[in-house]
């Protein structure tokens, strides 16, 4: 059976079936089709309006995304307004195919395991795995971690590009800089790529709002999916006065308001940098004590990536697409040692799909079963973060070199 699963004649049909299923779930009207609204309702409108003269995001006006995110949003316009969604799905599926092809170009057990894991994670997340901008950054990050061992300069370029699409791949760059042997080549390539993007954006495009994405999240409240909002949702279910779920029309998301919400939002603002700092210090400790570099890099990348979500006041479902990448890196290093976080991530991702898009309305209505599902999902995020910190501590304590699992 293992030999069969390693065959490309099995891997590629599985890839095609998975992407056809995910594409169909976005295009078919209904609960899952509505999850495609970010693509057809926001991305398309942004670039349509920009071309019509209303101003370019990140260039003429503030934007929530880094400027390179405009590229994958512009390409589907070749299909016109009516075909925008279909071309988007084709575009991201082809990008995933490139990443999948590079990942499986060497028919080894670690890479095969990582490939199957990625397919499982995509299906576990459901429609938003293809129906959000995050899919582009994830594919670039997969290419980046695959290139890390053999072409670190290319890894740095790819991870930097991913970061300028959606900021989270910076977690992998930070992990590499702290723990990997290839740190300098990756860092120089990433910095060089960033300088090129900034220079082109600033001098050629006149991007006055190039860095506007950095502060776009600071003023928002607690999104309902955030772990910090969970106790308030339970309090609202218990009919504590003045607590409620509402739709914020300025950022197009559901948030929770009432007593304690502003305090928890401020706590969230401080919690993420503190979580990142804790992970970085443990990663640095592991590196200084000569922990196995690839394992320490994967564990630190997982801690930072999950920390970006678990200690955020947003917590959107597409963030769970990120988690698969550091897990894949860990699986390629040691499948046995990364087995627990791999399963925990898959479990949390399945619950994320259950929450959105399938039963989102029930959660917004404060259905206690869905609140329990959300609570468990958020607890799993924190459990993965805790596992990564413990793994870094133990790696730094033993200072031993671990062989890569095959």
Automatic annotation (TrEMBL):
Signal sequence bounds = 1-23
What InterPro entries does this protein map onto? GT87 (IPR018584)
Q: How does it sit in the membrane?
A: Multi-pass membrane protein
Its domain of life reads: Bacteria
The UniProt entry's coiled-coil ranges are: none
Q: Kindly report the protein's main subcellular placement as a broad class.
A: membrane
Q: Where in the cell is it found?
A: Cell membrane
| Segments traversing the membrane | 115-147, 153-179, 186-205, 270-288, 342-359, 379-396
Indicate the family of this protein.
Belongs to the glycosyltransferase 87 family.
Q: What is this protein called?
A: DUF2029 domain-containing protein
Q: Which organism is it from?
A: Gryllotalpicola daejeonensis
